[in-house]
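General statements about sequence and structure are easier to judge against a single worked case. When preparing material for the folding task, we compiled for one chain both its residues and its backbone structure tokens. The amino acid sequence and the backbone structure tokens for this protein are reproduced below:
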Amino acid sequence: MKEHKGMRPQDIVILLKLIIDVGQDIRIKDLSSKLFISASEVSESLNRSTIAGLLDPAKREVDKDAFLKFLEFGLPYVFPAQLGPVRQGLYTAHSESSLYLSFSSEDKLVWADEQGKERGQSILPLYPTVVKAVKKDRVLYRMLALCDIIRIGDTADKNKAVWQLRESFQNKGSFV
């Protein structure tokens, strides 16, 4: 039996990308280049997710129900949001453009990015390369913004974010 070293933040990003790309021939080098995460880190992440029961290694398919439960009940405790100073960046959480009308927060939250056009209180993304990856993947961007709501929002907003992720998971990563 392999030793379980615990989940890491990049595991969430990689599992979300596997849900988005379901049905495609997904290779480690593809995940690595799309997410700007080294191939060795992707490989280790897939092993951790398999050990945690979140990934079927034969099919490289995410157990969406188990993963959603982890996001809902574990994410805010295992990877809590860390707020930083006001910076320029890319909107996240309640502030992301497709989400801000659905959620109650007036606060503007950003992932720091020197090329970003928005300003707000900074929040550390789950993984440093997230900002680069979401510029090329709108669905991943929205999913990670919803994860940030789970990490930082009130109970009503967390529940709404989980519901939206569940809907997206059922639609193979797309949003209706």
